[in-house]
């Protein structure tokens, strides 16, 4: 455990040295590329206004998302009703999608347990 802590600490030192050396240049390059998105003057009031605009814009998009959800659900219902006419390729794609979802959930569980397979820390 102590050796892992020492390795982690040395990696953190290396990362902070890299950021100290290259962080300023990266920041300047990033700001230069994206200056069209920067609001002038960058004040707290302007940030609060933009935050409210984002919130209410997202809120206004709920009815459209609601309708899109029901359209997708109706499409799934239609496919389920006509499942006898389903092609093998479509069934294969659906099976692969389901398998991928299951795999992501399994990976998420493993990550959530700290990359252990039994759930116990060794």
TrEMBL record:
The keyword Ion transport applies. GO terms for cellular component: mitochondrial membrane; proton-transporting ATP synthase complex. It comes from the Eukaryota. It is found in: Mitochondrion membrane. Its main location: mitochondrion. One of its GO terms (biological process) is proton motive force-driven ATP synthesis. Keywords: ATP synthesis, CF(0), Hydrogen ion transport, Ion transport, Membrane, Mitochondrion, Transport. InterPro entries: ATP_synth_F0_gsu_mt. One of its GO terms (molecular function) is proton transmembrane transporter activity. Belongs to the ATPase g subunit family. This is Uncharacterized protein LOC103711188.
């Amino acid at each position: 455990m102590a050796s892992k802590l020492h390795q982690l600490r040395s990696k953190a030192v290396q990362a902070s040295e890299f950021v100290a050396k290259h962080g300023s240049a990266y920041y300047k390059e990033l700001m230069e590329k994206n200056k069209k998105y920067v609001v002038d003057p960058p004040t707290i009031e302007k940030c609060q206004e933009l935050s409210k605009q984002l919130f209410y814009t997202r809120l206004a998009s709920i009815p459209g998302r609601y309708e899109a959800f029901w359209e997708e659900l109706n499409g799934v219902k239609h496919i389920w009703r006509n499942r006898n006419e389903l092609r093998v390729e479509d069934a294969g794609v659906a099976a692969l999608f389901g398998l991928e979802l299951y795999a992501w959930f399994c990976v998420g569980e493993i990550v959530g347990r700290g990359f252990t397979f039994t759930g116990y820390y060794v």
